[in-house]
Amino acid sequence: MAKPKIGRRTLDSYAVKHISKTIRPGDCVLMRASDSSNPSYVARVEKIEADGRGANVRFHVRWYYRPEESIGGRRQFHGSKELFLSDHFDIQSADTIEGKCTVHSFKGYTKLDAVGNEDFFCRFEYNSTTGAFNPDRVAVYCKCEMPYNPDDLMVQCEECSDWFHPTCIDMTPEEARKVEHFYCYNCSTEDQKKLPTSHADMKVETKRRRR
């Protein structure tokens, strides 16, 4: 007589011994890439299952894509730690997990005092079949009308509150860090516009520091 098939059960958590971490649904994890020369994959754990004996553990995950893995590729405004939450679901074994990480909201990431190796951010969902993003539009800044890249130094006009890249307003990064007041060209007075360089207050958004 054939042995009855043992059903699978859902786990609330699972201790991954080789990294000494407990993983729960909703956690973000680093997973071993198929090519060791590539960075670890990043995924969000959706569900954890095991057989009736608590063995043969499987992680149901939803993959994050890096910009260079998307159809359009990496663009100028993509941050170095930016990820896209994809519609690509998968099942992985526990031994592919290399560690835990944190995928912040875009707003939360920009408020970090320091960015560690396990810190990432996500502001888009990504359709891996069509290459479409949600949302499909985001706020743009500066004369170049580009979305904000949190890795870039930007300066803020006191009058209109728009942000500008120093290179787009004929300013070096060193000058941007020293100037105390800044008004963009449209907000400057006629006398200020006649000056070779009219930089007044500047609120500086510094590059992210690495821990």
TrEMBL record:
**Entry GO MF terms:** chromatin binding; zinc ion binding
The chain positions of domain PHD-type read 139-190
Spell out the Pfam families in the cross-references: BAH, PHD
Query: Could you list the residue ranges that cross the membrane?
Result: none
Span of domain BAH: 21-137
Keyword Zinc-finger assigned: yes
Its keywords, alphabetically, are: Metal-binding, Zinc, Zinc-finger
Query: Which PROSITE patterns does the entry link to?
Result: BAH, ZF_PHD_1, ZF_PHD_2
Q: By what name is this protein known?
A: BAH domain-containing protein
Which lineage is the organism of this entry classified under, starting from the top rank? Eukaryota, Viridiplantae, Streptophyta, Embryophyta, Tracheophyta
